[in-house]
Write a structure and sequence with these properties.
The structure holds two protein chains of two kinds. Helices cover 53% and strands 18% of the residues of chain A. By secondary structure, chain A is of the alpha+beta class. In chain A, helix 7 runs parallel beside helix 8. Chain B is an alpha/beta fold. In chain B, the strands form three sheets. Chain B has a five-stranded parallel sheet with strand order 2-1-3-4-5, sandwiched between helices. A four-stranded antiparallel sheet of chain B has the order 6-7-8-9, with helices on one face. In chain B, strands 10-12-11 form a three-stranded antiparallel sheet. Chain B is elongated. Classes of the chains: A alpha+beta, B alpha/beta. Chain A binds chain B through residues 240-242, 244-253, 255-256, 259-260, 265, 269, 272, 275-276, 279, 403, 405-406, 408, 410, and chain B through 8-12, 14-16, 18-19, 22-23, 31-32, 55-56, 78, 80-82, 100-106.
């Protein structure tokens, strides 16, 4: 299934900002927990300390009859803090905001330590303790809300800079990502603005290592397409050029047949017309083979027995050789497994043997041999007793459409190009020389 | 009209030779550039059909070297090289006509006749001398508007004379123009053909120049 396309830039931005926000929130939560714990410890300590002071003070003034002394309020937090001192169940001292009854509710149910209570709907934290003779009860309370205030203040001071920093961070990130994906944007733009048929390699200056493989892959694709187009173009040009002569021959022969009154002559012209057609077909076949060979990438390689393949090809061509009065022999005693493409190797062998048969005169000998050398390499050799080739012609062999001058056979001049191409694809060595065995041409293929 | 055909492709060469023969040309066929140049230098052909992609010596080189040797034989280039630069190059190298394969045999023959006509400064298709009119395309001869039946040889001989009207032609020159390779020439064949022409067209047309040869008079002699 196709996934919806998305902007890399937006995705990165959302991802990074999201992660940063989550990290900050987690930090804030941890800070909150930690600060609250420490704050509780500290303020509880203060409450206990204040209670201790009151207990000590009460011990000294226990006989003084200060009934309900109201301590002055000295700080803005004072209303949030309250204390009470009871002596034998009677309230002897309290802060102005403290109630007449004990902060924890009832002095008779005294219990020392920290308690959290609700007084008039407000949460208080109260520390209760007693003097040495247990007749003095001291309550020190603090509004729990005060602690929340401090906590919020602390949290605010941590979160506020973060909240201000987030948009700035987003902006900075956006800029950085924008710059980072610029080469990709440039690549996209270059590709859209290119001529549809432009095949020149892409040159992307300062391309980051991440997109370099993509640019390389594109360039090699362009190169490949260029080669294909060139091969197509060459095929068309070659076909239109090389088919002119055979077609001219067919046309001329047909016209001669049409205008000929002598029956034997007309039959001769008609036979020539047919021969011309066969030649044109052969030429087209060869051109197509060569064109496919040049256009195709590495063909599928498999293990095949070259001896078997050559035997088949020799068998196919034997009737033609016999018709020319030649002797065609095949020599091989053992299987010769090679790695190659069967179709292509068959084309190679067929061309080699066919050339030998075609360009050797009547009653000539053509010897085909496949053998395994001591070093394990397989050698295919085609010898003939034909006229062979001059040094000059050997050099020109394999030029497209080069035909050996003076040869009467209707060759296309493409066979050798095909042989060379197949050999290259298979990394085979190709040698041509004067045949030591039969005196004509010897072609050796080393796998 | 005797034509040199230089074409290395055996099927096409065979077809062109047979076709041009049907259309009344004498054709000598060579298969490589060296032979083409040798023959063009050795014999006076009425015209030549030259392929460019010849073995041993490229057609263009043959053309350049015969033109450099002041051989004016009209040359029709017949080739597969069909691009405009190729055509321009061919014509500039001395070709009189440039035809891309494949070609219709009748067109090729017409072009050859036109080349020959131009080479002899003849504006019309028909050749005229005195009251005799020869139509190379229709292969007919009329005397005072009456059709005259001639054999192929007689026709060729008359055409050769008419193309070179006023010039004296030796027996060897006439034989060269009339017979392609491999055709046997009787020692008195030319005399026999001229005798027949005089019988059919009158004695005023062809005159014997003793010890030299024969000449055709464009206008009747003042008697």
């Amino acid at each position: 299934m196709l996934r919806r396309s998305h902007s890399l830039q937006r995705r990165l931005l959302i991802l990074v900002l999201g992660v940063v926000t989550i990290v900050w929130l987690v930090t804030a939560a941890l800070t909150w927990l930690d600060v609250r714990h420490e704050l509780d410890e500290l303020l509880d300590g203060h409450l206990a300390q204040a209670a201790a002071i009151l207990v000590v003070q009460q011990g000294q003034e226990v006989d003084g009859d200060h009934d309900s002394v109201d301590a002055p309020s000295l700080h803005r937090y004072a209303p949030r803090v309250a204390f009470q001192v009871f002596h034998e169940g009677r309230l002897t001292m309290r802060s102005t905001n403290a109630l007449q009854t004990a902060l924890t509710g009832d002095d008779s149910e005294f219990k020392s330590g920290f308690t959290s209570v609700q007084i008039e709907g407000v949460a208080w934290r109260v520390f209760s303790t007693y003097g040495a003779e247990r007749d003095v009860h001291v309550y020190v309370g603090e509004e729990a809300g005060a602690r929340e205030h401090i906590l919020w203040a602390v949290l605010r001071s941590t979160l506020l800079p973060m909240a201000i920093a987030l948009p700035l961070l987003a902006l900075a990130l956006w800029g950085a990502i924008y710059r980072s994906v610029a080469p990709m944007r440039r690549l996209g733009l270059t590709l859209t603005q290119r001529e549809p048929l432009a095949l020149a390699p892409l040159a992307l200056d300062g391309a980051p290592t991440e997109i370099a493989p993509m640019v390389d892959a594109l360039n090699s694709l362009f190169e490949r397409i260029g080669e294909l187009l060139e091969s197509e173009r060459r095929f068309t040009a070659d076909a239109s050029h090389e088919l002119r002569t055979p077609i001219a021959a067919i046309r001329a022969q047909a016209q001669v047949a049409l205008g000929e009154t002598d029956d034997a002559m007309r039959r001769h012209a008609l036979r020539n017309t047919l021969e011309g057609c066969d030649r044109a077909i052969r030429l087209v076949d060869q051109l197509l083979t060569l064109s496919r060979l040049e256009a195709s990438a590495t063909p599928v390689m498999e293990k095949i027995d070259l001896a078997l393949l050559v035997r088949q090809v020799v068998g196919d061509l034997a009737p033609k050789s016999i018709a020319k009065g030649q002797s065609l022999e095949f020599d091989c005693t053992e299987p010769c497994p090679v790695s190659g493409n069967e179709t292509l190797l068959a084309v190679l062998v067929r061309n080699l043997v066919d050339n030998a048969v075609r360009y050797s005169p009547a009653s000539a000998r053509v010897a085909v041999a496949v053998r395994r050398r001591p070093d394990g390499r397989v050698v295919l050799q085609v010898d003939d007793s034909g006229p062979g080739l001059s040094e000059q012609d050997l050099i020109r062999l394999g030029e497209r459409f080069f035909r050996v001058p003076g040869s009467d056979e209707a060759g296309s001049g493409l066979g050798w190009s095909i042989v060379k191409r197949v050999a290259t694809v298979h990394r085979m060595q190709l040698h041509t020389a004067r045949s030591e065995k039969l005196g004509g041409l010897a072609v050796t293929v080393i796998v | 009209m005797r034509i040199l055909l230089a074409e290395d492709d055996s099927l096409l060469g065979d077809g062109l030779r047979a076709g041009l023969r049907q259309l009344g040309f004498q054709v000598d066929w060579v298969r490589d550039g060296d032979a083409a140049e040798r023959e063009l230098r050795a014999q006076a052909y009425t015209a030549a059909v030259l392929d460019l992609g010849l073995p041993r010596k490229d057609g263009l080189k043959v053309l350049a070297s015969i033109r450099a040797a002041h051989i004016a034989t009209p040359v029709l280039v017949l080739t597969a090289r069909d691009t405009v630069p190729d055509r321009i190059l061919g014509l500039d190298m001395g070709a009189d006509d440039y035809v891309v394969k494949p070609v219709d045999l009748n067109e090729l023959a017409a072009r050859l006749r036109a080349l020959v006509r131009r080479a002899h400064g003849q504006p019309q298709e028909c050749l005229t001398a005195q009251d005799v009119v020869l139509d190379p395309a229709a292969h007919t001869v009329r005397r005072a508007d009456v059709p005259v039946t001639l054999s192929n040889r007689e026709f060729d001989l008359l055409q050769t004379f008419m193309l070179s009207a006023g010039r004296v032609l030796t027996r060897e020159q006439l034989e060269q123009q009339l017979y392609s390779w491999g055709q046997e020439v009787d020692s008195n064949a030319i005399e026999v053909h001229i005798h027949n022409l005089r019988r059919k067209l009158g004695n005023a047309l062809i005159h014997t120049v003793r010890g030299v040869g024969y000449t055709l008079l464009r206008d009747p002699p003042q008697s």
